[in-house]
Amino acid sequence: MPGFVSPEPENDAPLNGASSTASKPTASKRRVRLISLSKIVPSLITMMALIAGVTSIQKAIMGDFEAAILLIVAAGVLDVLDGAVARLLKAQSEFGAQLDSLSDFLAFGVAPAILLHNWVMVDAGKLGWMASVVFPVATALRLARFNVAANHTEDTPQWKKRYFTGVPSPAGAGLVMMPLYIWLMFPNAFDEFRFANPLVALWAIFVASLMVSRLPTGSLKYLKLPDRMAVPLMGALTLLIAALINAPWVTLTLITGGYLISIPIVFRHYRQMERQYEHQTEDISSLAFGINEIEVAPTAEDDDRKPLDQSVL
Predict the structure, then answer these.
(1) Would you kindly state where each structural domain of the chain is located, as residue ranges?
(2) Tell me: the pLDDT tens digits for 38-47?
(3) Choice between 23 and 129, residue whose per-residue pLDDT is larger
(4) 297 vs 285, 294, 304, 305, 313, CA distance in Å?
(5) Region of residue 17 (phi > 0: left; psi between -120 and 50: alpha; otherwise: beta)
(6) Are 268 and 215 contacting, i.e. CB atoms less than 8 angstroms apart?
(7) Which CATH architecture has domain 37-222+237-280?
(8) Is 54 exposed, middle or buried, given 0-12, 13-18 or 19+ CB atoms closer than 10 A?
(9) Does the structure show a pLDDT above 50 at 312?
(10) What is d(CA 10, CA 66) in angstroms, rounded to the nearest whole number?
(11) d(CA 156, CA 29)
């Protein structure tokens, strides 16, 4: 009589409840996520701007103010390019956004502050030191506010996206260095006005307040021109580059002066758009610093002092 033979287990079934290792992919079989080299081009441009900012600090410490300014200007150009290239290549990423913010803080916040401090604000006493601290802190606050707002763009009306909130950090760096441009044009004339060095510190604090304010300023991101203006625009950019090469301090002074003049013009245009799309306009104090939105929470004493409701008597 033949004996009873138990059936053999299937090859892919685990024995004694043990987990099968055949179904788990080994490290060599795991798929490696590949990215195109074009995806890292914007981050490479941002790193170039970061390197320019660090080198600008080095030049400022060494007293080479001209090279320090030009490196900050180069960082500003690279800052414009990295965003444009990222949108063109569809290579936006959270990593790139964070790297860009850190680069902007160093190149447009720390570098100009150290540059101005080593130039004249070191002789401005405590006011000069205060300005050297306030400006990079204002840059950090402005960038933090921008990053938070960038995550809630769906709540922003389309017409408001044409404006920045406050002066952007690259423009703020250009504005705060305006006295230095003038000094480089007339270096001997400033020797007679050394007593006015604290005015440079006050100027830096004023620019810092513009950066953290809520004043609307122009944004070129959504600016569109007719196609027939392409050739004249390229000609104007060529003229601007030639002027920066041959007469950088005069050109930078004119650019920053023109930007200052544009602030009230853009504000007036913002008011017109606000009246067109909104039911009521925002108060100027709120638009600048949000003053009328500040509320004082009632205390327990205030609750006790409230008159009794006559309806319950």
Answers:
(1) 37-222+237-280
(2) 788 889 999 9
(3) 129
(4) 21, 10, 14, 15, 28
(5) left
(6) no
(7) Up-down Bundle (1.20)
(8) middle
(9) no
(10) 79
(11) 46
